[in-house]
Amino acid sequence: MAIRGKQVLLGVCGSIAAYKSAHLTRLLVKAGAEVQVVMTPDATNFIAPLTLATLSGKPVLVDYFDPASGEWNNHVHLALAADAVVVAPASANTLAKFAQGLCDNLLCAIYLSAKSPVFVAPAMDLDMWQHGATQANMARLKSFGNHIIPPNDGPLASGLSGTGRLAEPEQIVGALVVHFSDPKPLAGKRALVTAGPTHEAIDPVRYISNHSSGKMGYAIATELASLGADVVLVSGPTNLPVPDGTKIVPVTTAAEMLNACLTEFDKADITVMSAAVADFTSKSVADRKIKKGNEEHQFAIELVKTTDILAVLGERKSKRQILIGFALETDDGLASAKEKLRRKNLDFIVLNSMQDEGAGFAGDSNKITIIDRNHVAEEFDLKPKSEVAADICTRIISLISR
Question: What's the number of domains the chain is made of?
Answer without folding.
Answer: 2
